What we know:
This protein is α/β, with parallel strands linked by helices. Helix content is 39%, strand content 19%. A 5-stranded parallel sheet has the order 3-2-1-4-5, with helices on both faces. The chain has a 5-stranded antiparallel sheet with strand order 10-9-8-13-14, covered by helices on one side. A 4-stranded antiparallel sheet has the order 6-7-12-11, with no helix packed on it. A hairpin with a 2-residue loop joins strand 9 (232-236) and strand 10 (239-240). The relative contact order is 0.13. The mean pLDDT is 94.
Amino acid sequence: MKDKNIKKVVLAYSGGLDTSIIVKWLQDNYKCEVITYTADLGQQGEIESAKKRAKDLGVEQIYLDDLKEEFAKDFIFPMFRANTLYEEQYLLGTAIARPLISKKLIEIAEDCKADAISHGATGKGNDQVRFELSAYSLNPNIKIIAPWREWDLNSRDKLLAYAASNNIPVEMDKKNTPPYSMDANLLHISYEGKVLEDPWSSPPEDMWRWTCAPENAPNDPDELELEFFEGDPIALNGKKMSPAEILNSLNNYGAKHAIGRLDLIENRYVGMKSRGCYETPGGTIILHARRAIESATLDREVAHLKSEIMPKYANIIYNGYWWSPERENLQKFIDSTQKTVCGFVRLKLYKGNVIIEGRKSDNFSLYSENLATFEDDKGSYDQKDAQGFIALNALRLKNRVKN
């Protein structure tokens, strides 16, 4: 049942088909003022067009926010410190953006004295959960309108018909057909729908917007040097950069060398499996480099413990619990492990591969050439000690065998 007391609503607005239709639908069905909020998270070429579309739809209050630095510094990089992968593959490019957008929606709703916020997430997907859990964590009393759970426009054909009847322009792809369901930001581009709904069908090459195919990548590699400080990359090839700058630069290198494509069937939090394709070039490079510097600077048991909790941490973010106490407490542990993760990583990019060439940490390396050498270790390790070590660890194994 529609809340007749809602007079003003803040909509998370991308400028795409779904949210453009939602503007008109909210105006017609709730008879309310619609305020649009568009976050610039690094989705190239979409921000100004979103502003124009909102104006064309009669929106008077239009908010545009450049959040690239905040997104990279306060969301992407903290997540990366855990080497986070959902189901061992997905770098969470969509999931990590939702808590930031939700935070801004709540702030604008409070500033504008709006009665509710709204989003364009489908009732079948994860994003509805992420937006709403984040919003309720920040303002337990906020009202949320989720049109996909209310309207009867439950297919692409119905959406297109609604758009046509209300003179809402529809962006077409190169084949003059509606585009894939996409999410783009500084970390990734995701694709769902159309031919991808058949998991046996290959993603068409003209779908990918960012990375080149491996067979079309340059025959000459690029060699990079990344500097890390307390777990975060801070310089590329000797040049200090901000978080957003360094990620953007790595995106360009990775896209050039076909780094970061992923075709995945994942388990959505709402219970179904779905297929998505992702391009995450810069994030993939950072993940490989981070693992390399951690291998030299983290204590063995700390590194293993981090690896054990990583899937739990990834699930928390994927499922929409960024603002939860469990994520915040896990983050404290993760961040505490990164104080010594400082140093340099050399790597090579070549036809879809990130190849580690070297790593060093002048002050925090736990690697000892004297201990690891096959040459004379000058007495730093007594190999005879291993006999007692093995005997004690073999005791319980021997005891299992009944004579």
